[in-house]
Amino acid sequence: MNKTFVIVLVILALALAIYNITLLDFNNLFEGDSLIACIGVLASFCAIVILLIFNTSRKISEKLKDN
What we know:
single chain, mainly alpha, 0% strand, elongated
């Protein structure tokens, strides 16, 4: 995976999180469609964290190869 592909995936996950935040009903946060939106927000943020960890590990591996 190259750098631009990872950035595109992070932007897509962020857009999905923002969309799911708009679906939240803060009066009934854990009921119905709002619960599904909460799960979507959490999954999107997990995907972003995993992609950032992958990007960092790729940079570390490139630096180790240079030495």
